[in-house]
Amino acid sequence: MEKLKQKILNDGRVLSENVLKVDSFLNHQVDPFLMKEIGDEFANRFKNQVITKVLTLESSGIAPALMTALALGVPLIFARKKNSLTLQNQDVVTAEVFSYTKQETNTIAVSKKFVNANDKVLIIDDFLANGEASLGLIRLIEQTGAEVIGVGIVIEKSFQIGREKLENAGYHVESLARILSLKNQQIQFVTEEVL
Ligand code: G4P
Ligand code: NA
Ligand code: NA
Asked: Binding residues for 5-phospho-alpha-D-ribose 1-diphosphate, per the UniProt record (predicted)?
């Protein structure tokens, strides 16, 4: 997605060889116009599939996931990271997600009220690094008996192992920007073949 790549080049900051800061449009301040286009693009990339719900993980996945849900005309569900007050006393499915970036494990949860065996779920997230968040969301969906249609990622760090893990597990991944390298303070994208 050309507009997203331009935004990353113009506004992104390389914090290290592994971390890209995009807090001016995605992770802190959010650009609603860009999010709208991101939602439309995901809806277009998955247009041949039946999707009944969009699922993300709080908090930074919510903006792009909401716009995708709007474009598809289906509800958005965001998995919660901590035992929230509103999740108490509900029947939930949970999964453990280990973050290499943060070196911590979070329990994530979704109420069974909102995902059931008839659902066909599209997962959306802001970043794909090692794939642990997406795999955790997949484990949640599978406990409900619903089907995972695919995974849509705003920014994929292609030099990390997430995409490979998801594809090896049989899941369809669509990323709107694929970063090949952040070495030497340079943002390099994967070259996509233009057909
Ligand atoms: P993984 O799910 O692919 O294995 O990634 P990892 O655990 O390493 O990522 C942990 C958190 O860091 C996630 O946010 C993820 O979106 C974010 N992250 C990973 N790499 C980058 C990066 O290069 N730049 C930025 N800006 N974020 C990155 P989170 O903890 O869920 O936080 P939230 O922002 O959703 O609240
Ligand atoms: Na994040
Ligand atoms: Na995230």
From this structure: 129-133
| Mean pLDDT of the 7-28 span | 98
Q: Which atom of ligand 1 is nearest to the CA of 99?
A: 7
Question: At 187, phi and psi to the nearest 5?
Answer: -95, 115
ipTM of the complex: 0.93
DSSP conformational letter for 167: H
Whether residue 60 has its Cβ less than 6 Å from ligand 1 = yes
DSSP result, 42-73:
HHHHTTTS---EEEEETTTTHHHHHHHHHHHT
User: Ligand 1 in contact with 20 (CB < 6 A)?
Assistant: yes
End-to-end CA distance of the chain: 15
Q: How confident is the model at residue 88 (pLDDT cuts 50, 70, 90)?
A: confident
Range in 12-21, 74-83, 109-118 with the lowest mean pLDDT: 74-83
Name the residue of 99, 134, 161, 166 whose CB sits within 8 Å of the most ligand 1 atoms, as the mutation to test its pocket. Answer: 99
Sheet strands (E) in the chain: 13-14, 20-21, 53-57, 76-79, 92-99, 104-111, 120-128, 147-157, 173-181, 188-189
Q: What are the chain's domains? A: 31-155 (3.40.50.2020)
